[in-house]
């Protein structure tokens, strides 16, 4: 339904532009906010926004800054879909934390993940805090961030290591890290609240769309195949259930709750629409640790996942024109 509404809106916009080409200055049927000029849109976020992995397209910015924004990531997809309505500035960056969005410069890592991969261009110069791309003329801000503040990559790595040490039995990752998860979520909440306040201060008239994370772990972890690196490798089924219930679902709820504290912000849910497209499903929208034949993916959305994100974020963006 979201995709249908978006496509209908696009058809209406296209018709309006065609009418304007025939009769200069007339935009019959065009959205009033879109008629005057393009809406200024700034895309902020981490690797789930930037794209990063090859399954989400090729990095297109040269010289590289190490943020690895890719051509099939959802901001770039939306830019192609709605480029006549929104003027995109995309400063999302792989490995960004909430503080990197708010006020802390970031030293991007590119694809430098030793011992798994070496990036010949590493190290990269620091990039400014992403919020610096936001200003009084910004109309829409999309932001997808929080996983790195939570320490999700570190959690995944730990779960894989201890799962292997326990031959796939039990919940060794939950046993090792479970007691500290609430403190991590509290940190996400506090920093997210502050980020939203800073963004609102920099762009008082902008609508902020906080983009959540997609479904990563399925309800039935039996389909996840212990030892399969195209899925979750040696993470145990028990720990996968813990990751879904006590880490990833609460992360989305934390972001949604923070969004509710800011009148100019709203939450874009990606979890419900991706329920049957987890890392372990046949048609996956999020890759596992690797993508065949030999690409390191480390649990990131592929082009299908970004297309789904684009559909939902597009609809929310179009709604800001009302």
Looking at this protein, list some descriptive labels.
single chain; 322 residues; alpha/beta; Rossmann fold; 2 domains; five-stranded parallel beta sheet; two-stranded antiparallel sheet; 11 helices; 7 strands; 40% helix; globular
Instruction: Determine the mean pLDDT.
Output: 90
**Helix/sheet category:** alpha/beta
- How would you spell out the order of helices and strands? HHEHHEHEHHHHEHEEEH
CATH C-level category of the largest domain: Alpha Beta
Spatial arrangement of strands, main beta sheet: 2-1-3-4-5
Give the count of helical stretches.
11
Domains, number: 2
Assess the beta-strand content as a share of residues.
5-15%
Radius of gyration: 20 Å
What is the architecture of the largest domain at the second tier of CATH? 3-Layer(aba) Sandwich
In total, the number of strands is: 7
As a percent range, the share of helical residues equals: 40-55%
State the end-to-end distance: 19 Å
Largest sheet: 5 strands, parallel
**CATH fold label of the largest domain:** Rossmann fold
**What's the shape?**
globular
Could you explain the architecture of this structure?
The chain has helices at 2-22, 32-36, 47-50, 74-82, 98-102, 147-150, 152-165, 172-177, 181-202, 237-259, 303-319, and strands at 39-45, 86-90, 140-144, 207-211, 265-268, 290-291, 295-296. The chain has 322 residues and is of the alpha/beta class. It has 2 domains: 1-36; 38-319, Rossmann fold (3-Layer(aba) Sandwich). The strands form 2 sheets. A 5-stranded parallel sheet has the order 2-1-3-4-5, with helices on both faces. Helix 1 (2-22) packs across helix 11 (303-319), helix 4 (74-82) crosses helix 11 (303-319) and helix 9 (181-202) runs parallel beside helix 10. The longest helix is centred in the C-terminal third of the chain and has 23 residues, at 237-259. Residues 1-36 have low confidence and may be disordered.
């Amino acid at each position: 339904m979201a995709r249908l509404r978006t496509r209908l809106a696009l058809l209406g916009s296209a018709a309006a532009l065609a009418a304007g080409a025939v009769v200069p200055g007339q935009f019959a049927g065009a959205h009033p906010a879109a008629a005057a000029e393009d809406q200024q849109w700034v895309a902020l976020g981490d690797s789930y926004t930037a794209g990063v992995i090859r399954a989400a397209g090729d990095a297109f910015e040269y010289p590289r800054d190490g943020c690895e924004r890719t051509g099939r990531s959802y901001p770039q997809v939306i830019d192609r879909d709605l480029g006549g309505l929104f003027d995109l500035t995309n400063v999302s960056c792989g490995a960004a934390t909430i503080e990197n969005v708010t006020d802390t410069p970031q030293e991007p890592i590119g694809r430098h993940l030793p011992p798994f991969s070496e990036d010949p261009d590493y190290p990269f110069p620091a990039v400014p805090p992403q919020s610096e791309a936001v200003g009084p003329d910004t109309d829409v801000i999309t932001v997808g961030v929080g996983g790195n503040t939570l320490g999700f990559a570190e959690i995944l790595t730990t779960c894989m290591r201890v799962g292997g040490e326990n031959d796939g039995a039990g919940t060794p990752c939950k046993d090792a890290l479970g007691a500290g998860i609430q403190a991590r979520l509290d940190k996400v909440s506090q920093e997210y609240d502050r980020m939203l306040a800073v963004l609102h201060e920099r762009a008082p008239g902008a609508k902020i769309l906080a983009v959540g994370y997609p479904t990563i772990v399925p309800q039935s972890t039996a389909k996840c195949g212990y030892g399969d690196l195209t899925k979750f490798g040696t993470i145990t089924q028990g720990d996968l259930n813990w990751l879904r219930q006590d880490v990833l679902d609460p992360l989305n709820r934390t972001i949604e709750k923070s969004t509710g504290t800011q009148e100019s912000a709203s939450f874009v849910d990606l979890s419900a629409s991706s329920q049957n497209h987890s890392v372990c499903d046949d048609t996956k929208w999020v890759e596992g640790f690797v993508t065949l034949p030999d690409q390191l993916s480390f649990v990131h959305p592929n082009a299908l996942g970004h297309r789904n994100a684009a559909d939902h974020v597009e609809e929310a963006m179009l709604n800001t024109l009302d």
